[in-house]
Amino acid sequence: MTDTPHPTDPRRPQDPWHPTDPGVLRLPSGRLVRGRGLRHPLPPGAPTPSYALYLLGRQPPPVAWEFRWVRWPDFRLPADRADARVALTEAWERAARERVEIACGGGRGRTGTALACLAVLDGVPAEEAVAYVRAHYDRRAVETPWQRRYVRGF
Predict the structure, then answer these.
(1) Which of 17, 55, 85, 118 could be joined to 72 by an S-S link, Cβ 3.0–4.6 Å?
(2) What is the pLDDT confidence band of residue 136, given thresholds at 50, 70 and 90?
(3) H or E segment at 24?
(4) Beta bridge mates, 136
(5) In angstroms, rounded to a whole number, what is the distance separating the alpha carbons of residues 1 and 101?
(6) Rounded to whole angstroms, how far apart are CA atoms 66 and 37?
(7) What is the 8-class DSSP label of residue 104?
(8) Please, which residues bridge with residue 37 across strands?
């Protein structure tokens, strides 16, 4: 007899993102994470995340799923880099068993930077992480030189 978690147990693996859905990035480990711009509504019928990390200059509006907010002004870096590292690590860990979404206003600069940091956590060399995210998520991800430096130092 196997020890299968109850359907409501948060440790139970959830149906993952579909790898070809818009914004879904497959990390080398196979983890799937969706990046998104919050200024764009979810497409009709699109799955919702079970957990989201929102990278915004101000508190995001309430949503129906669990989320964490990291204060991260547009075109800048996180206001608290230690808190951002903890939040990014948690998102990467949860992506192994949950539908995790990373989002900012437009879905490119802050989101791309965060996705590149997740790629580093997943084993991509820091010097290659921005190129990885640009090749597999959005060719214009990670918009500023200081965001690229942040990833290299992550």
Answers:
(1) 55
(2) very high
(3) strand 24-26
(4) none
(5) 34
(6) 17
(7) E
(8) 104
